[in-house]
Structures are given as C-alpha cells and as structure tokens.
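Translate sequence into structure tokens.
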Amino acid sequence: MAPPIPLLAVRGSDGTSLLSGPPTCEQLSSFQRDSRPSRCVTFSRDGTLFGWCNGHNVSVVKSSDGSVLSTFDLPKTSLLEFSPLNNVLATWQPYSKPQDVAQGEANLQLWELQSGQLIKALYQKKMDSWCPSWSEDEKVSVRSVNNELHFYEDNDFNLIANKLHMQKVSDFALSPGGQPSKVSVYVPGSKGAPSFVRLYQYPVLGGPTAALANKSFFKADRVSMQWNKRASAVLVTASTEVDKTGASYYGEQTLHYLAVNGETSVVQLQKNGPIYDVAWSPSSAEFCVVYGFMPAKATVYNLKCDPVFDFGTGPRNAAHYSPQGHILVLAGFGNLRGQMEVWDAKKYKQVSKPQAPDATHFAWCPDGEHVVTATCSPRLRVSNGYKIWHYTGSVLLKQDAAAGSQLWEVRWQSFPEGSFPERAVKYQAAPSELGTTEATPTQAYRPPAMRHLPATASSKLHEEEPPQNQRPGEKSLSKAALKNQKKREAKKAAKQETKPEAEPPSDPAPVSNSQSEPSSGDPETDKKIKNVKKKLKAIEELKDQQASGRVLQKNQLDKVQKEDQLLKELEELQVGQ
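Result follows.
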C-alpha cells in the first residue's frame, strides 16, 4: 500500500488553504478555501481532522474529503487543540473581565467533538500551558491550577481524580505514550533553597519515596522539560534571565538529565555560552545539543550523557531530527544567515548544505523526505513566503505571498507513527527546475595590503573546529591537539605558497611590515595613510564578526559601509609614493 500524501495548511491575511503535499503542493480540491483571515489552525494528532477559527466561528472538517464535522460559535478563539483520540476539542480565548463584574467568563472550553456538547468550562488566564495534557489513550489528563496539578480520568473533568500539591509547582510535562503515565514537575527555588525537578508515576504522587527521580540545581528562573518518545528519560534546560557574569545577554543555561530508573546527571557541554536548542532523536537513545558562543557547537550525546559525535562549530542555533530519526538538520535561523547542514544521523556524514535566508520557520514533512521553510509575519513583514525542499538541498517549490498580503503560518498534517517507512539516505541532489541553494564557501575579508600574503590561522577571528567522532573507545582530539593540528596545517600551507619561483619576480610585492613601508616623503601624508589602514583593519574585523553570525550595531554597520570610500582615499594618498 502506497504511503499517504501529506497536506500543508497555509494561514495568512488572505485566508486559510489546504495544499496536497510535496513536491507540487496544489490546492486540495475537496477543501473549500476560507478567504477570511484565521486566528489559528491545527490538525488532530492522527491527521484525520483539521480545525481553524476565522474570527466568526470554529470549524472542524475531515482532512480526507473536507466534509464538516462540527462548527462552534466561538469568534474570539485564539488556540485550538484535539485530544489524542479526537474525543475532545479544547478551545481558548483571551481572558477578559468587565469592570463591574467580580469574575469574567470561563475562557477555556472542552467540547465533545462528535456531539458538539460542552463538557466543561474552565478559567485559564495565562496562555502558557493553556491546554490539558492527555496520555495517548486519554485515560489520564492533567492541568496546572494554583500551584497544584489536577489529574482527571477518562475525560471526566467534573471530578478531580488526584492532586499533586507542592509548595509551588511552576511547570510540568506529561510523558508521551499510554499507561503507566509519568509526569515531571518543576518547583523553583526560594529563600536560598535550590530549584528541583522530580519524576512521578501516576497515580503514586505522595510520600517521600514516591518520586522516581529527583534533580536539584541553582541558577534557574525557568525550565524547559522534554520527554523522549519511550518516556524513559527527561532533558531539563534550566535558564536564568540574566547572566551575572556579563558574558551573555541570553542569560545562563544548564542541561540536566533525569531517567525514570532514578539516574540523574548534568550534561557536560564542551564550550561556554548559551544553549540554543536540545532535540531528542526519535529513537530515544540519543539527543543533540546546539550550544556555545558563536560559532556554536553541536554534539550528540548518548543516554549516559557521553558525547558520541561532535559536529564542530558553525553558524547554527537549531537542531531538527527527521520523524524517522535517520536525518538531522542543524540550522541557523533568526539573526543568522539561514544556513542548513543536513547530516546522515547514523553514518554522521554530511548530505547537503543549503541556505534559506530570512527563514523564521522550519518543519519536517512526515514523510522524512521533504522540509518546509517559511518567512512569516509578524517576525518578518517583508519577503513573506515558503519553500518546499528535498533534504538533499533541491528547492522543489517556491511560493511568495501575494502583494499586499502576509503569511502567518504553515503547518504539516500529522500522521500516526509508522505511516511513512524510513528510506535510504541519498547524497545526490534530487532533480528540480529551481535547482539548489548550496552554500558557497565564504572567505573572510582581507585588506588590499594583505591579499598577496598567505592566509594564516592567526588571521581568523574565530577558531573553527571540524567534526569529529567521539564514540567511547575511539580516539578523539583534545582542544589543544586540534589547535596544534590547525597550526601545522596553516604553517604547511604558508610554506607551500611562499616557495621560491624559478625566476624571481621583477616587481617584488611590498612587505606589510610597518618598518619597511615606503615613505611618501611627507610625514603628514604618511600619518594619514596609517590612519586609513587602521580603519580598514577595523572594518575587516567587523566583517569577520558579521560573517560568523554576530549582529552588528548601527554605528558598526556605518563603519563597514565606508570601506569603498576609505579604499579610494588610500589609493589617492599612495599615488605620489
């Protein structure tokens, strides 16, 4: 049986559309395009249902034929979510309260999807963690209420089946999969006490020995908790708002590992700086971390928190495993250039290196063969549009937003696990009329006075690190060894470039040593030449910083723009020499 064709939902100022999957992505004939701007769109977990709110009502249709299943008169709805088995639809709208009323209306509604009947109306003022979390079989659901976790069973939201009460439960994450359900909870520290994360297995939530694992730590204003697919371990990224050392405006981050068997660990990262992204492999046996001051490192760790493979350094801030786990994309979006590194996640061999400038969104297609990148408003209000790619770097479709309209969101249809088999990784670019956007090697700016000289490692602003295997038992180079190896390579390259020729050149190149620079005979002119060269050197450093991903300030950009003017001035000063 042939695998299904995924759908792509596109939401923007000119309405909501459903497109029939890659590579063509044509309008789905069975879905009547809604020309009214939508507040939100979502697919059910199995992809059979599609829901959206257009500012007038909430509609739910079948993805296969576009037939309407339910319609709800909820014009202010901003968020939608289906329960795992499609029994419940959760809707949320911003909480509001008239001045003359003590309590506003309940803004979180839970609806029985088939009948359209309201199951329960609840108060949920914050958008964060607005939706109840369900187990895969919908036997257990949980939501946070006033520093407590309320557990419900079999979608009976009129009866709280169990509670977990601590001094201040700030966040939680329910494990994926079915029973037994597990939950990780975060309690922030106070009055000198450390913060901590604990794992529990429902329904055993009380008593000193109830916790499956416990990890305490300082320096945490907030955390992000991620379960792996097998529900055997959690990764906790702890963050502070401010880095008191002043080293980073991202604050400080640490990464912690907790397993349901009680094992805990701090993941030892090999470079100082922020943690940009953490991603579990779908195999649940390893995870990838992107971290460190730019150019950032990316490293894969096993369940013992030992490094398995180091991808070296590069302009990146995100990691995305394919749904099948056979391909890993390291990307640099946002304030970076949009470079993507596509890797075979089993052989650790690079497949392609395409670029998607100005992209604000990346998502794998469920087939594990295609990805979508998009430039969406309000993050970027210009050049809105999306591209469909094959992972080998080929652009299969490029769709720009219509003039005067904005693209707000693109979203792939979801599918049950196993719907798309894993295919062998290809290294040759897929055929495409639009070609590829393979990143071309870039060279750091060098001033004219140094362009005739060989490049050396010392002339680079950042020390680049190559990928290296770090599996236990296999030899890996230390940082000092890498540095020495690069010095030897640079010295060898310099020696090759400066070998004496058979006939000496009639016009030997001037040496860039300041002591042997030719003089114009006019001390004032020599001084001006020296100042101009100093400014050009500063511009060189700024351009190197910009190329490595650093965002320059306005005054720095103004300096860079004066390069041509300075080069012309230098040429005029040197005419009389």
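Note: The first strand starts at residue 7 and ends at 12.
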